[in-house]
Amino acid sequence: MSAPDSAADRDRAPSPRADVCVVGAGPAGSLVAAHLATAGYDVVVLDAGPRFGDPTDRGGRADRADRTDRMERHLRPGDDRPIWDTGGDRDAYTASGERDYPLDAARVKGVGGSTLHWQAMVMRLHEQDFELASATGMGTDWPLDYDDLRPYYARAEEELSVAGASDNPFAPPREEPHPLPAFPPSYSDSLFAEACESVGLATHSVPNARNSEPTEEAGACVGYGTCKPVCPSGAKYDATRHVAVAEANGARVLDRVPVQRLDHDDAGDRVTAAVYATPDGTEHRQEAREFVVAAGGVETPRLLLLSESETYPDGLANSSGLVGRYFMDHLFAGMGGTLDEPTRQKHVGFNTTESHQFYDRPDDSRTAIKLEFLNYAGPAPSDVALSANTFGDDLLEEIRGAYGTHVAMGALVEQLPRRENRIRLDPSRTDDHGNPVPDVVWSLDAKTRATIERANEIQREVLTEMGVDVDWTVGPDNTGPAYHHMGTTRMGTDPAESVVDPQLRTHDLANLTLAGSSVFVTGGAMNPTLTIAALSLKAADHVAERL
Fold this sequence. Notes:
Largest sheet: 6 strands, antiparallel
CATH topology of the domain at 170-206 and 332-413 and 445-478: Cholesterol Oxidase, domain 2
Strand order of the largest sheet: 5-12-13-14-11-17
Strand content: 15-25%
Order of helices and strands: EHEHHHEEHEHEEEEEHEEEHHEEEHEEH
Structural class: alpha/beta
Radius of gyration: 23 Å
Helix content: 10-25%
Number of helices: 11
CATH class of the domain at 170-206 and 332-413 and 445-478: Alpha Beta
Mean pLDDT: 92
């Protein structure tokens, strides 16, 4: 559905002069580009995927008609095309670990990146997340603490127009209110409230990067309920907002130009160019003073590994041997069933109530748990209609009987960093440019399994108290990833034990910064995008200091 090239977008030649070259136009890269361009620097952004919508729209936002078409593709019976054009040789991968990892199930290559289809829940990591080894003996401490990132969290919430409330007794300290008021609890949240109080489970609102009221950037949420995979109204934040800011301040954003490798100088001290391919197969070299790779927890290490040279035979910036290592994700634990009363599920496409009561770890007996009260349990009316063999009034009665009586709880569970979990190259399979594809090596350890079991215990206690007829459970044996790719170019002060320093600059190359979740040292159990945004703003400040 991506529009063809227009005259405005055919110029994919390199800029003759650039202060900064950013690889990736997702949430990390767009924030870096926007802030450096606003500061007056010449910025070029290279993204592997398309600019969705009309490429002549220089405002940078995927246009509304395109988004509506993609929503209809999602809802239309029998239309199995991927919503964001994922798949094929471009997105080929392998998964050779103990557990399968369906990488293409939830990634987007394109201007805006994963924020085009995310759920937009944005929480700060807890203080304990940054000092996990010191507090519990598990994992590794970050080389910075919560207070170091605290002002950047506040800036990130402003940039993403976060709607929230200061009603979470387990959240880390903050001085500022959220930029927008929180969304009210859903109807099904109210059904959970009494049971949670009975079992001693405290609940609170969920910060969301979607407009609860209009802003200059977008209108308020109008309740399409299709937040994942697409928000037609634009009320949900996506990175094209900051792409627009970058372009308005002179940045060039090139789409469909996958970077093939990074070249460096003879000494191996500095990156000299990003070599990228255009749709016709021509390769170009974009030179710059500073380079920022913001391609996510899978493609960032892959690019570094593809950039091997005589100086870096194991991959660029990989003198530690840790590029691609310590891959982490969040695991899902869930449980749901039916109530003998209306629950009004599917009216809200995102979560409005959570509990972080079991987030901080009392010791090394378990990892972090973030409990969620789902607003999208059970089938939607269209799902019931698709599976029915009746029509007319009989179909209406069947829909009424199957829809709107479901409730469910979910949870994100922390996975500790383990060296054997990694992203590596698979030379036996290549992408559309002949490069080895990423191979996801992923397994589940005993501590994570035990934490998933604990999450299920809490969920069953609440649902039993409510009188729910439980008919499904996602536990350690059938769990899956949340598709939060973290930890493959970890941050640290020791060059032998990390890839980037606390400024997110690689230890090996003085002008190469890595922005995004790949620098996470531990993953916690919070959705990572707010931390990605905070770290990206920090990285942009440090790049500006060097320019």
